[in-house]
Design brief:
Blueprint lengths: L2 E3 L7 H10 L4 E5 L9 E2 L5 H8 L4 E4 L6 H18 L4 E4 L15 H11 L4 E6 L9 H10 L1 E4 L12 H13 L5 E5 L7 H12 L4 E4 L2 H12 L1 H14 L13 H5 L6 H8 L2
Parallel strand pairs: 1-2, 1-4, 2-3, 4-5, 5-6, 6-8, 7-9
Helix pairs in contact: 1-6, 2-3, 3-4, 7-11, 8-9
Length: 280
């Protein structure tokens, strides 16, 4: 029996493929046609029948939704849920990719809620992986570059705002664990405990880079302007909205009682270990 991995060439899917392959498990790597690599299977989220055929007989399916217009994502979500119910794979693990969680409720009609609700209402063994913010966000050139060259880690969060950061590598570890642990169901929060503040994050960068790095909180609008040339105006506007919403909260920390640390005995990487693993 195989493990079907969505977004196998992307930031979240590729580490999952590597983690499963390293343990000798057979993997079917899926990618949308536009991003298809030589070792992947093209998967069209807009075809419930194609997804059903890919999921049928699978030991596990790892799902996360692609970026794009929310209307398209909702349509994809309905197709994913329909395919899961029809194909009945042995286990499904879904990553919310940072949506919802903490003090940011997810709308009931959103794509993430559609997949989560569909899994909850069905009879398939499932788990929902719920990170907060990804450490990989800090690899944007204007973020890591300023830390390395100017000794300033600039990010659109208050200096006193604690975050349970997680790496895509942590998500892969947890997903692999969850395929082996069908007894762990429901939502699993992934991220550092205790949550860390901006100055603590900058301190980890400084220790790794061997230089003084200070934290500078910038506005979401300024951050959006800096990333728009990379991501496009639409996605950048979504990022601005996220960080404005986070600015209204007291923290963005995971719940210890639903953490991977408690439920799986899996500690996420520290910021320093993550930097070392990347070889930056």
């Amino acid at each position: 029996m195989t493990y079907v991995i969505h977004g196998a060439t992307g930031a979240q899917g590729a580490p999952v493929v590597s983690a499963l392959a390293a343990s000798g498990r057979p993997v079917v790597p899926l990618a949308r046609a536009a991003a298809q690599g030589p070792a992947t299977v093209a998967a069209d989220y807009s075809s419930a029948q194609q997804l059903t055929d890919l999921y049928r007989g699978a030991a596990g399916v790892f799902v996360h939704l692609p970026l794009g217009a929310e209307a398209d994502r909702v349509r994809y979500a309905h197709n994913i849920v329909a395919a899961i119910r029809e194909a009945s794979p042995a286990r499904v693990v879904f990553s919310t990719s940072g949506s919802g969680g903490g003090g940011l409720p997810e709308p009931a009609d959103s794509a993430v809620s559609t997949v989560t609700g569909g899994l909850e209402a069905g009879d398939i063994s499932y788990a929902v992986v719920r990170p907060r913010l990804f450490l990989e966000n800090l690899l944007l050139p204007q973020v890591v570059g300023a830390a390395r060259e100017q000794g300033a880690l600039r990010y659109p969060l208050r200096a006193d705002f604690p975050v349970s950061w997680a790496s895509h590598l942590d998500i892969a570890d947890v997903v692999a664990d969850l395929f082996d642990r069908p007894d762990v169901t429901g939502t699993i929060d992934v991220g550092q405990l205790p949550a860390i503040t901006g100055p603590e994050l900058a301190g980890a960068f400084g220790a790794h880079l061997g230089r003084e790095v200070s934290y500078e909180a910038i506005t979401p609008a300024a951050f959006g302007t800096s990333i728009a040339p990379l991501l496009g105006e639409g996605p950048a506007a979504g990022v601005v909205g996220l960080y404005r919403a986070l600015g209204e909260l007291t923290d963005h920390a995971i719940a210890p009682e639903r953490s991977a640390q408690k439920l799986l005995g899996r500690d996420p990487r520290s910021t320093g270990r993550w930097l070392a693993d990347l070889g930056l």
